[in-house]
Amino acid sequence: MVRVAALTIVASLIVLPLAAQNLLVNPGFDNTDQLDDWTCTISNGVASWSAEDLFGSTTSGSMRHDVSAGSDNQTIVCRQCVPVVELNAYVPSMWFFWPDNPAFSQLGSSRISYNYYSDATCSAYLGPGDVEAPNPAALDTWLYLHADETVAPPGSQSAMVNLVTWQNFAGQPVRAHIDDVDFRTTTIFRDGFESGTTNAWEP
Ligand SMILES: [Ca+2]
């Protein structure tokens, strides 16, 4: 019995390297979370929770943007600030869906963008990440979208991830659903040889 207990303790001390994790909270818009943890600028329409889910789950949903602005080139933006580590690389992605509905125009785009900040609350702007802004290539189909990977500049502490729906023309409302958003580091480990040795590398 003692030996078994000892083995259990040894096993529990083996620490596996953490896989890169999604840094966003409520990235899949589960029912109980609705749009929690996202901050939306909705002066040009409405951001709301929808039961339309990427994988058809009945226990999750998506974020819906209805943009109905009275002037050209207006947006709804929902944002979330996440912690980052300087000099690590990051990449965002999301799925989006434009319904084939005559009530809505297809003259617009879904976008994902992000920027880096030198404080923990995304207040002190440090530099750009990347942005991707495609028009919907197909309707009634979930489409995958990712921006390019970038390296967080020295001093980075946080990044703001922006989910954007863009309406091209006044009076031509657009609707988009967004689901399963992701923002994570692609840096598995970093060894900039700061210690003055090559100890992390095997000869
Ligand atoms: Ca979902």
Short description:
The chain has about 200 residues and is mainly beta. The protein has one helix and eleven strands, in the order αβββββββββββ. It is elongated and about 65 Å long.
Structural descriptors:
single chain; 203 residues; mainly beta; Jelly Rolls; six-stranded antiparallel beta sheet; five-stranded antiparallel beta sheet; 1 helix; 11 strands; 6% helix; binds calcium ion
What does this structure look like?
It is a single chain. 6% of the residues lie in helices and 39% in strands. It has a single domain, classed as Jelly Rolls. The chain is elongated. The protein starts with a helix and ends in an 18-residue tail after the last strand. Strands 2, 3, 5, 8, 9 and 11 form a 6-stranded antiparallel β-sheet that branches. The chain has 203 residues and is mainly beta. The structure holds calcium ion (CA). The site of calcium ion has 8 residues, from loops. Calcium ion (CA) binds next to loops.
Question: Gap between N and C termini, in Å?
Answer: 42 Å
Largest sheet: 6 strands, antiparallel
CATH architecture: Sandwich
Q: What is the strand tally?
A: 11
Quick one: CATH class?
Mainly Beta
Order of helices and strands: HEEEEEEEEEEE
- Average pLDDT reading: 90
Shape: elongated
Classify the beta-strand content into a percent band: 35-45%
Q: CATH fold name, please?
A: Jelly Rolls
The CATH superfamily name is: Galactose-binding domain-like
Can you lay out the helices and strands and say which pair or pack?
Elements: H1 2-13, E1 39-41, E2 45-50, E3 62-67, E4 74-83, E5 89-97, E6 108-117, E7 125-132, E8 143-146, E9 150-151, E10 158-167, E11 174-185
Antiparallel strand pairs: 1-4, 2-3, 3-11, 4-10, 5-8, 5-9, 5-11, 6-7, 6-10
Bound molecules: calcium ion.
Calcium ion is lined by residues 28-29, 53-54, 60-62, 179.
